[in-house]
Amino acid sequence: MKESTKTNIWIFIGVFISFLIANEIYTQVNKPASGKSSRLECHKKGATFEKVVNQELIRKLKYSLHYNYFKVVVWADKAKYMESVMFDYVDVNVIKNNMINKIKQYSDKRSLTEDKVVIDVMIYENDKKDPGKKTKKSKLYAGYIEVTIKVNKSIVYKIQTDFMDLEGKDIPQRITCIVKSIMTLKE
Predict the structure, then answer these.
(1) Which CATH class is domain 35-183?
(2) Any bridge partners for residue 121, and if so which?
């Protein structure tokens, strides 16, 4: 074989290997995130999804929470296709107070910030008769808590976690996990 043919083969092999490596890197970097979180141990106790929407505002969020400058809004999304039962046991005001008290465990007593933090908490009752729910797995949980946090009207962070008890007995543990998730965000 001629020397130039051997050189061309080695160049072809090098380019081919480089292409494979570059393709694998591109695939890993651009792989869609599932959103399912296991960052904290409590995330593993139920399906938990979290997303930082605006990393630049995390510091302001944590600062505002630390200095007790926030508002919590809680509302219920009751079942529409089946008779709503959960909210006979679950009181949104109790959930609101639980959320506030958990955050205050991380706070000082004074407010030194003008950034307005709103914590929007939606308690969703899993509607097991919803015709859109096709799998058995989608009917296993009692509901979920979805929290959207805004700083000065800009969404900063979202988290959603399932709870299993129809009477909401596991909601306090899920709220503790949500608050811990918020307070352990990296700035």
Answers:
(1) alpha beta
(2) 74, 147
